[in-house]
């Protein structure tokens, strides 16, 4: 199994996508929030590249819906929720169709949509993501969303956590680049204090400055969720749906 890491969506090439499985990381916070939403029973997450498109699609939806997103870390006007993973509640949100746009994460997932399989990945579900990637029996690209067009420490750590999980599971892993080796090194250096590492990253500083330190702490809780969102290639709008485990099983792996 060959694995590469791409530090930003702007660096993606056809080689990173064709015939490969891709896991996308926006650890602070979009892919962590997507994972938490699906764990709370959200039925699907429709992804948009801009705020107005998400707002219009949600307004036209006749069923139970939830409009989620952020600009500069905070929810835009008219959005029910921002990009906080701890905001989801099964009693309130189970069965909901979620419409989502964020600065970095949703766009990174859209950029990877031509891959054979695309998963939303984070520290909170890294072992489960590793299982899903392994199940595809394909070579792997780990795509980091970055922060405002720059590489993000927390996304590299997330990519490294999946590499570590694959190696620990006994997979034969061939790291294709020094970026992949760096991602693994970043995770190994941070794993004993992920909260501290995320808090001092630029993304963490931005979230804390917005008054949301609890979001950073949530995102650092490694392997607390076992659900994984996968892009549905048959959907008219790019849509994440639960890939694993079976419905109702969102307990953490230990």
Question: How does the SSE layout of this entry go?
Answer:
Blueprint: E1 2-6, H1 14-17, E2 21-25, H2 30-39, E3 44-47, H3 51-60, E4 65-69, H4 90-93, E5 97-101, H5 105-111, E6 117-121, H6 126-136, E7 140-144, H7 153-168, E8 174-175, H8 178-190, H9 194-200, H10 202-209, H11 213-219, E9 228-231, E10 239-244
Helix pairs in contact: 6-7, 7-8, 10-11
Task: Describe the 3D structure.
It is a single chain. With 254 residues, the protein is α/β, with parallel strands linked by helices. Helix content is 38%, strand content 18%. The chain contains 11 helices and 10 strands. The protein has a 10-stranded mixed beta sheet with strand order 4-5-3-10-9-6-2-7-1-8.
Tags for this model:
38% helix; disordered C terminus; alpha/beta; 10-stranded mixed β-sheet; 11 helices; 254 residues
Q: How much beta, percentage-wise?
A: 15-25%
Broad structural category? alpha/beta
The geometry reads as globular
End-to-end separation in angstroms reads: 25 Å
- Secondary-structure element order, N to C: EHEHEHEHEHEHEHEHHHHEE
Largest sheet, spatial ordering of strands: 4-5-3-10-9-6-2-7-1-8
- Poorly predicted regions are 246-254
Number of helices: 11
* Number of DSSP strand runs: 10
The largest β sheet comes out as: 10 strands, mixed
What is the overall pLDDT average?
94
């Amino acid at each position: 199994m060959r694995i590469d890491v791409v530090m930003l969506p702007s660096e993606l090439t056809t080689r990173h996508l064709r015939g490969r499985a891709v896991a996308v990381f926006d650890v602070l916070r979009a892919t962590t929030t997507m994972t938490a939403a699906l764990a709370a029973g959200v039925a699907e997450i429709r992804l948009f590249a801009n705020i107005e498109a998400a707002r219009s699609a949600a307004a036209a939806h006749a069923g139970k819906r939830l409009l989620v997103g952020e600009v500069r870390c905070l929810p835009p006007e008219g959005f029910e929720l921002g990009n906080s993973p701890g905001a989801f509640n099964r009693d309130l949100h189970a069965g909901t169709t979620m419409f989502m746009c964020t600065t970095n994460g949703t766009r990174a997932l859209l950029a990877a949509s031509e891959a054979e399989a695309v998963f939303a990945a984070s520290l909170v579900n890294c072992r489960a993501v590793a299982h899903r990637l392994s199940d595809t029996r394909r070579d792997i690209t780990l795509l980091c969303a970055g922060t405002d067009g720059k590489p993000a420490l927390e996304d590299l750590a997330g990519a490294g956590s999946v590499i570590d999980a694959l190696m620990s599971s006994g997979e034969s892993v061939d790291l294709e680049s020094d970026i992949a080796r760096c991602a693994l090194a970043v995770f190994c250096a941070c794993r004993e204090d992920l909260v501290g590492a995320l808090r001092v990253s630029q993304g963490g500083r931005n979230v804390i400055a917005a008054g949301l330190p609890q979001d950073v702490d949530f995102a650092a809780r490694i392997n607390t969720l076992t659900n994984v969102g996968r892009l549905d290639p048959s959907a008219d709008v790019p849509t994440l749906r639960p890939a694993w485990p079976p419905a109702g099983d969102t307990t953490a792996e230990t």
